[in-house]
Amino acid sequence: TESEIDQILDYTHQHYAQPNKAYFGKAKGKNIIIIHLESFEQFLIGLKINGVEVTPFLNKLYNDKNTLSYDNFFNEVGTGRTSDAETMLETGLFGLPTGTSVFTKLGTENTFQAAPAILAQQEGYSSAVFHGNVGSFWSRNIVYKNMGYNYFFDKSYYDTADSETNSLNGYGIKDKILFSEGVKYLEQMQQPFYTKFLTVTNHVRYQFSDDDNGDFQSTDLDDDEINNYFKTAHYLDKSIEEFFKYLDDTGLSTNSMIVLYGDHYGLDKNSAGESQHKELASGVFNQNTDNWSQFNETQYQRVPFMIHMDGLKGGIKHTYGGEIDVLPTILHLAGVNTKQYIQLGTDLLSKQHNQVVAFRKKSFITPKYTVYPNDNGNTKVYENKTGAEIPLRDNPELAMKVDKWQKDVNKKLKISDDVNNKNLLRFYTPAGFTPVDPTKYDYQNQVE
Ligand code: GP9
Ligand code: MN
User: Fold this and answer.
1) Which residues form the active site (predicted)?
2) Distance (Å, whole) CA 341 – CA 328
3) Which of 85, 87, 82, 80 is nearest to 101 (CA)?
4) Active-site positions?
5) Hey, which bits of 43-173 come out as E strands?
């Protein structure tokens, strides 16, 4: 195991991307507020339905001069969905290749070197998670203690006596309540704080009354899940707008960096097993979908990633990246060095950032190509510009590049799986880091 750790450190040191001097430490000492946008896909940004913007507030934020926005940012989750997005954000490691998630399968026992602990030890941050579902979902009530979270405000911390605060079909409290009630706890926290708000209303099949949505009119497609998706996205947008207003009213916005990301696709397959992205492409974007392929499906794995802070030099970046890259990006902004940690992404703002985005099933996308490996060796390569498949046998140079990228993607995923499955961080403590003692945290959560 010691030699295993050494090999892994060789890899992470070789693939380390140096912070960008123009951004390193720009958020030093600021509060960090993560907003996890449930099932929120990038195509919602700027989209109009019946001439009306679905997400007017997020559109404004996306284009704000103090927001760094990314339009080639991809979700990289596997079957662990929300919890995989959290695993990448907090630990810089991927979710598992198959079967449930790091959270439920390993997270209750494993050793982590996660964001809340790193920020607490190096920069004196307190930390908390806010979520409207029961605490035991994805074993969060235990995993967060192992990650060093000081508090976890799950559903039981909210006043749910009024049935209007809840989903009509049991997915937890509505996002507007999550934020309006949550901010009361937030105000009491010791600053600087690192906090995460996990929204839930935009989850597929979440139901709320139409009265909650003003006069917003959704699409009228055959697939009600798609019609509903725009409604819940619109509601989520309003709830974020209200939250920003609370942050302004409390003065928290002036000393906070706010990070927003979509965790994964919201549309997937309809009940007949057909791609809802394909339905969306023809029904809403009027695209010809006759030759729908893995390439098209990959195009719809984009999710938003935005960093907003007063005084931040913003703009819309076209850099390719994904969820695994968020942790080093945030830590560098906070002025924390990451070189000694085993994290598999690279700072999106670094000039050495790696633009090969690995998906959990070993396919990947680069700025120019989308690649799907195949067990029989018949790798499919698509050119992003045209969507056309490029036969590798006619392109030996490209074949060599693809082979090199694929080896690195496989290696990275393998390292992640080894670290998680063998709980390897038990055997490696970076200089200056103290292992987390979960018994120091005694918050109670709702267990179901
Ligand atoms: C549940 C919420 C949704 O608490 O985080 O999880 P998902 O189904 O997206 O993994
Ligand atoms: Mn989710």
Assistant:
1) 82
2) 10
3) 80
4) 82
5) 48-49, 52-53, 67-70, 73-74, 126-131, 151-153
Q: How far is the CA of 135 from the centre of ligand 2 (A)?
A: 15
CA distance linking residue 92 with residue 364, whole number of Å? 18
Q: Give the predicted TM-score (pTM) of the model.
A: 0.98
Ligand 2 centroid, distance to 369 Cα (angstroms) = 27
User: What's the one-letter identity of residue 448?
Assistant: E
Neighbours of 291 (CB within 10 A): 10
Residues 396-442 pLDDT 10s: 999 999 999 999 999 999 999 999 999 999 999 999 999 999 999 99
C-alpha 56 – ligand 1 centre gap (Å): 25
Q: How far apart are CA 426 and CA 429, in angstroms?
A: 7
The complex's ipTM? 0.98
Nearest in space to 39 (alpha carbons), one of 235, 270, 234, 204: 204
Smallest-distance ligand from the CA of 81: 1
Look at ligand 1, atom 6, and give the residue with the nearest C-alpha: 82
Terminus-to-terminus CA distance in the chain, angstroms?
37
Give residues with Cβ within 8 angstroms of 9, minimum separation 6: 342, 428
User: Was 13 annotated as part of a binding site?
Assistant: no
* Pairwise CA distance, residues 21 & 40, whole Å: 31
Question: Does 36 show up as a binding residue in the annotation?
Answer: no
Give ligand 1 pocket residues (Cβ under 6 A). Answer: 81-83, 133, 137, 198, 200, 203
Pocket test for ligand 1, best of 35, 38, 131, 144 (most atoms within 8 A of CB): 38
Q: Smallest Cα–Cα separation from 354: which of 294, 295, 409, 296? A: 409
Which residues surround the ion ligand 2 when the cut-off is CB under 5 Å? 38, 81-82, 263
Q: Which of 385, 406, 384, 367 is nearest to 73 (CA)?
A: 367
Q: Which residue has the tokens 């791609």?
A: 275
Q: pLDDT tens across 161-173, in order?
A: 888 888 888 889 9
User: Hey, whose CA ends up nearest to atom 9 of ligand 1?
Assistant: 82
Helix (H) or strand (E) holding 162: none
